[in-house]
Structures are given as C-alpha cells and as structure tokens.
Amino acid sequence: MNEKRRTKWLALVVAWLAGACLSASAMTVFDLRCEQLDNPLGIDAVRPRLSWKLDSNRRGQNQTAYEILVAGAENSLRRGEADLWDSGKVASDDTVEIYYSGAPLTSRQQCFWKVRVWDSQGRVSESKIAHWEMGLLQTPDWQAKWIGRTKNDAVAIAPLLRKSFALDGEVKEARAYICGLGYFDLYVNGKRVGDHLLDPGYTRYDRHDLYVTHDITALLQRGDNAVGVILGNGFYNVLNKTAWDWDKAPWRAAPKLLCQIEIEYADGRRTVIATGDDWKTSDSPIVYNSIYTGEIYDARHEQAGWNMAGFNDLSWEPALLVDPPAGTLCAQMMPPIRVDQTFKPVSIKEPKPGVFVFDFGSNLSGHAQLSVQGPAGTEVSMKYAERLDTNGDGLVDQAAIAMHVVRFDAKQKFQTDTYILKGGKPEIWSSRFAYDAFRYVEVHGFPGKPTPESLTAIFFHSDIPKVGQFECSNPLLNSIAAASRRSYLGNLQGIPTDCPHREKNGWTGDAHLASELGMYNFFPSAVYTKWIQDIADAQLPEGKLPGIVPTSGWGYTWGNGPAWDSAFLLIPYYQYLYYGDTDEFLHHYDSFKHYVDYLTSRAKDGIVNVGLNDWAPYKTTTEAPITDTGYYYVDTKIVALAAGLLGKEEDARHYREQAANTEKAFGKRFYHADTGLYDNGSQTALSCALYQGLVPAEIRERVTENLVAAVKKADWHVDTGILGAKYLLNALTENGRSDVAYRVASQKTEPGWGWWIGQGATTLWEQWNGADSRFHVMFGDIDAWFYRALAGINPDPTAPGFKHFSISPNVVGDLTWVHADYDSIRGKIVSNWKVEKGEFYLEIRIPANTTATVSLPIADMAKIRESGRLLEKSAGLKSFKTENGRTDFVAASGTYSFSGPLSDR
User: HSE-up of 150 (CA within 13 Å, CB side)?
Assistant: First the structure.
C-alpha cells in the first residue's frame, strides 16, 4: 500500500471511529409530545406546548441548546424546510413546556416537527419526525348543524342517524369532526370508526362540549358511501332519578349530533358532508340506555346494513334540526377510553335453577360481552355487582352500590343489561353507552348451560400511558399496590371518579388524594387538564365550588369545602411538580385567586370551617376546622407560587403574607404547648399539621413523637379518614419515622389496607370496616408512598418536572429489596435496592439532562463503593455529606451501582 493510499485509509478509519464514538456518546432524542399527547389529531391549542426526552449512555450528559423545526408537510421537513417555525438554536436545557412560536396556526393545519439538541461537548442529536394536526378553530369552520331524532328527552330509545353520499374521485385525506351527545358510535361504510369508547368525554354541557377528530381516509371509497351514527344518553340525558339530580341538569335534552366530514381528493378538490335535515333517522335496537341503570338491546329490531351504502332508508324519517347545546365547542384533547384487558370467569355457579353467577376474580370497570345462541325473543339479563349476598344464597348483592338510585324507585334496575335474541346463529353483544363496576355477573334467562366462553369481562378506562412500576419483598405491599392501581384506572373514565358503580361522580377530594398515585404509575396529565377546566366551569361568581365536578347543580351546599375543593389548586400544583407544567397556573390563575379570596371571606380569625371533615374515619374523628385551615394555607401558598411564576410580584407578596398569617392563626388556635398536641391529638390532626407544613421547626420533633404515640395507642394501626390516610405515612416519613409508617402500612389486621387484602379485596374499599363500596380510590396514596418512601423517588419543588430530584430509599421493617422505575417527563428513573448479610446495594438510573440527590442508609462514607470505586473517586458525584446515619451526595445523569454496610436501624 503506497503512502498516499495508507494516509487516505487511516483518515477513513479515524473518521469512522470518531463517528462511532459520537454515536455512542451523543444523546438520543425521543418521545416527542404535543400538549402532553402522542401525535394528536384535531387539537385547538393555538400555541401548543412541545416536549421531548433525552437518553445517553454516558454520565453527566446535558442539553445545552435545542432547535425546533416545524413544517406543514413531512417531505418539506425532511428537506430541512421549516416553513412554519424554525426556532433557531436556543441556548437552553429546557425539554418540557416549550410553546410553539411560529406562524399562526389555522384550522386543519398539519404540523410535522422534529428537534435537534446540542450536548455539553457541542455534539448534535436529532429526533425522528412527529406530528400534530389542528382541529376546527373558528365557529364559521362548522358547516354542520345540530340534528336529532326527537326533542323529547323522555324517549329512551337510542337513535340511528345516517347519510348516503357519492365520491367521484380518489380520496387523499378525510377527517370526521364529531360531537354526539351524550355518547356516540360512528360508522363509515359499515365499519366502526376508531377504538374509542364512551366518546366524547363528559363535561358541564352548558359550559363546554367536546368534539372528536378521526382520520377516516382508509374507510372511504370512490362511488357510493354512507356514514352512520348511534347516539346514547350518557350524562347529557339521565333518564332516572338519582341522588345528584342529574335528571334536573340545566343542559338536559334528547341526544343530538354534530358531524362534519371533510374530504380532500387526490386532485386537490374538497367536499364536505355535514349534518343537516338531509340526514335520515330511525330507532335503534337499543330500546333503553342509562349511565346508571344499564342498557336493553332488542336484536330483533336490528336493521342490517343501516350504516352502509345502498341501504334502503325510504322508511326512515328526516332528521330534526335541534338547538345546539349552550356550551362552547372544544377539541377533546385527552386520551380516549379504550379496552385494557379481557377476563374469563374463574368460576360459574348456579345458585338457583336457571340463574348463573360468573366470578371474574377481580373488581373491574367496564361491561360483559355476551356470547349466546337461542330462540328469538329469549331475554338474557346481566346484573353486575362487586360482592355476593351475605345470606349465603350465592346471588349478587347490589345494596351498597345501588342505594342512591333505587331508593327513588324500588323497581328501578341498577347496573343491569338485557339482551333480547334475534334467534338463529350465535350472537355476540355488549352494551355501548353504559359502564359498570363488578366482579360478579348474575345471569338470568340464558338458554341452556353457559360455558366460560359465554361471558367475557371487558376492562376499560381512559387510555393513559403506564409510566411506573413498584415491587418489593413484601407480597402484601405488592397486592396493595396492584389494588391501588386497579382502583385508579377503574375510576378514570374521562374524569377522575370516586367509584365506577354507585356514583360515577368526580368527587374532588377523592381526586386530589389519589392524584400522586396516578402520576407515579401513569401519565394522566391531559385528563387532569380537561378536568381542571370542568372545575373552573363549576365555580360560582362568589368563588364557591361544588363537591362533585361536573355537577348538575348538586354539591354546593353539602360535600364540598377546602378539603375537597382544593383539587382545583392541588392538581395543577402536582402537574407543576411532576411535569414542570405551568399552563394551568396561566389559564386559571384568576379563578384560583378568586377561590382563595372566597375562603378568606369565610375565615374567622384566620380559621376556616367550611364543609366536610376527615371523611370515613375508623374510630377517632377530627373536626373540619383543622383540615380546612390546613388546605386554606396550602391553597394560599399555591396562589403565591403561581403569582411569582407569572410575574405578579404584588400578588405573590400578598398571598405569602396571608399564608404566614394563617400559619400563625393555626398554631394559636390548635396547638397546645402544655401537651405538644394539635387539636384533639388525633392521628389526623397531628399529621395534618406536619404534612401541610404548619409546625414550626423548633417543635417538630415533639409533635412527631406525639404522632408516633398516637399510632402506638392505636396498636400501630391507622386511625384516620381519607385525609389523614394521606397525611400520616408521609408526615412520619418526612420526619424520620419511616419505620413507623411501614409498620402501619403493612398491618394485616383491621383497620388497614392489608386487612382489606386479607378479606379478598382486589380494589380499595370505601370504609376501613368494609362497609359500603369496595371500589373507591380515596385511600390510594399509599401506593405513591411506596415510590416516595420505600424506593425513595421524590420530585424537587425547586426544580420541578424532575429536572432535579432525590433518590432516598428507606430500609425498614422486614423489607429486603425494592424494585421501582418511573418514566418521568424527562426520562426513566430507576431505584433498585436490596440488603444481603448487612450489606446495602443500590442501583439507580438518572435520566440525561437531570441530576439527583442520592441518600444512602450508610453511615461510613469511606466504606461505600460505586462500581468497585471509592465513592469520592466515582465520576459524576459531588457534594458529599454524612449525617444521621446516611450519606448524601449529588449525582449527574447516568447509571450507578452503590454498595456498603447498612447503618444500624
């Protein structure tokens, strides 16, 4: 090889090696999201928020700059042509809540985008292309008119609506923009569009109504086409009387439809198919549907091909033009409800001749799918329940869950579906416009003997991404965690609910108490954003809020108060803490401030006493003023924080001073210096003061000791209601007594989460003693405590969205290992630890572009090793400190493995 060729070859090798090293060390840019959604279709945020995550196989990798490129066509973006927005190179380590700042976005605008980032060595990484699409932003964009079958809201039959049309060319793209109230199913040429259930999400319909956008390009064809829609009642038209006055809702009306199909041909022509009086309507086989009572379907009334082209609809009537709902039409910008899992029965019993009870082994929300064959006219009914009758007859018991519906009419069915066979071939059916919560299904009228294939349980809920997993050496805690997660998902049906059977209501207290459970395990951000708007819609002019949201008007005089209403501020705060999201502070600041000012107007000497106290206590009760004032204090601090973030310095100063005054008033009113107790010394009173930050530093140790004494007095069991259940474990842990918190959490006897599991619970219960509902989520924060205390993964309020966080595991009780991971808004965090023969081992992962304070339960820093190296000599670590038997330090991004002798416990 001559010298010239050798030099060229060496240059190529060096270049290849450099490229390989660059590839190995550069960051990966992934999980691009718009408005917290993955490639959303039909949004109406005119300055949508963009975010991405980073990953790297090197420690200490940080983003130093980014560039966002947005184009109106994917090919343009591939050519580097960002005709909508080129942010330019922005010196910043931000990866979340980056507002689009390009050309004004218009209705139907398609946006393709990608991100380039620079690391600390100046190397560039580029993401794959993501996209979003705008919906219909202006009222004139809607050519469609609201239509229906009847204006009589007492008619129980679900209507069918259809339209035939012809297309004279090849379809390039087509969108369906649709709002069907209360719920709808959309079909194009006989095929159901999408996999959403119970669309659209329900709202206070006289304030906001949601439309859904579907891409229906693949369903259309040259020539004859047809679109069909079935409408259900949902919460828009509750037919039966309930305790919450849904039948008196100010928006109540018969089901109605707004649908606009926009089609672009390959040659550039456009056409619109819109609802109007040229649509046709008829009755469906759904002869009755109610969100609480169930559905009756008479298959003998089916009209084959009703939603297909060529169907003879001459006997159908013209659709009626109807009044639009009073609410503003908005895009549904949250994950839809979808099927999660299906379950086969674990047993089928026949407690009475011809009556069969299916046991699916676990509580779930959804419905059952029936598979049956028999004579025409045969009626098969399915009665859903979460428990069996205690009298031993083997039938289901609905008493605890039907109480607020059937008490108005003893003959009224609850959670019961009926299917009437058309006869002939095997028939498969499930309800469309109702959902139930159940473990057991009692079946009447089934022809012959059912098999396990005769009934399948379908579990569905808002389809939020899973982001967390916790597991430990204590099987009981793993069961509690599984029950908590199932309770959370079962109660997320477009809004966070208290229970998915008896009420289906958005109780605000239940929602905020369980929100951190949701955020550690899932990514519910977009659902919460929608629901916070629902709360804003429910606020009265004086600032008052109801206990349930949405509401027909019920809940303003009972069931509310700061301990519940504070969801309006707490959930946005948690969105800020976990996701770095300030958008709700921006949009709802005036409403937040108005609510706190309302509480101030109700305060007496700085103390608030409005509404409910610590709901569902075991034995010891705690009066409302202590918990109300605690939430008033926290709400005031949140308004001060929001004001500061928004640059409203005068407001920030005012509310900080007001919070300080409330703190003084709280101590003056409730603290007894002679005993060191707050109020009556209950677990709730003491833990409320500690958890809400109302205990001065100089007496915190004394108050903590008194809290431990209160727990000991209860034989190391929880003795609180739903508020104290959140305070207790966290207050103990934050004040150095995670050992006591663990002892409480792992109890197997009544009262406690473990006792529920021992009684066969698969979801969380409403009462410690097992009374009432057995599918509530309000005691669910214990699962978030598993992540915070046992795995030790905690956000840092001073660097929200896990820009900086802590990993501080607690080795307590009989625990020998914990495995936890949490896919934060900035990337995956891992905390896995174990103890073997007195040695503590911890493996952690810190996402690129973040840092963490790590706290090891090891007192002797000199004996700590990281991947075989002395701790202080390990790359990526700094700021070492040892005190109270723990060694703390700050770690840059990367993967680490620590070991050392466990401190004495």
Answer: 15
Of 305, 316, 285, 280, nearest to 187 by C-alpha is 305
Whole-number Å distance between alpha carbons of 25 and 812? 39
Torsion angle of alpha carbons 105, 109, 112, 118, nearest 10°?
0
Encoding tokens for residue 487?
């309770």
The answer to whether 512 and 539 have CB atoms below 8 angstroms apart is no
Q: How far is it between the farthest Cα atoms of the chain?
A: 100
Q: By the 8 A CB rule, do 29 and 115 touch?
A: yes
CB 728 within 8 A of CB 744: yes
The SS3 assignment for 663 reads: helix
Residue 75, burial from CB neighbour count under 10 angstroms (0-12, 13-18, 19+): exposed
In Å, how far from its chain's centre is CA 708? 34
Tokens coding 622 = 């705690």
The rounded distance, in Å, linking the Cα atoms of 762 and 870 is 46
The answer to whether the CB of 366 falls within 8 A of the CB of 432 is no
Q: Give the start-end residues of each E strand in 220-354.
A: 223-232, 256-265, 270-274, 280-283, 286-290, 294-298, 317-318, 320-321, 328-331, 337-343, 347-352
DSSP for 312-350, written as a single string: --TTSEEPEE-PPPSSEEEE--SPPEEEEEEE--SEEEE
Cα-only R_g, the chain: 29
Residue range 306-359, pLDDT digits in tens:
999 999 999 999 999 999 999 999 999 999 999 999 999 999 999 999 999 999
In the predicted structure, residue 180 carries a pLDDT above the cut 90: yes
Q: How far apart are CA 686 and CA 620, in angstroms?
A: 13
Name the strand (E) or helix (H) holding 502: none
Contact 109, 133 (CB under 8 A): yes
Rounded CA-CA distance 763/500 in Å is 12
Spatial distance between the Cα atoms of 902 and 811, rounded to a whole number of angstroms: 9
d(CA 587, CA 556): 23
Distance between the two ends of the chain, CA-based, in angstroms? 70
Domains of the chain: 3-134 (2.60.40.10), 142-334 (2.60.120.260), 339-462 (2.60.120.260), 806-901 (2.60.420.10)
pTM, entire model: 0.96
pLDDT digits (tens, 9 = 90+) for 265-309: 999 999 999 999 999 999 999 999 999 999 999 999 999 999 999
Helices (H) and strands (E) counted in the chain, each on its own, are: 17, 47
- Whole-angstrom CA distances from 150 to 54, 153, 279, 608, 633 are 54, 8, 14, 49, 51
DSSP 658: H
Question: Which residue shows structure tokens 């509750």?
Answer: 238
Sheet holding 28-34, edge to edge: 28-34, 49-55, 98-99
Residues 6+ apart with CB under 8 A from 541: none
Question: Which of 534, 454, 503 has its CA nearest to residue 778?
Answer: 503
**Site of tokens 């089934």:** 446
Does the bond joining 606 to the residue before it have cis omega, within 30 degrees of 0?
no
CA separation for the pair 310, 164 (Å, rounded): 8
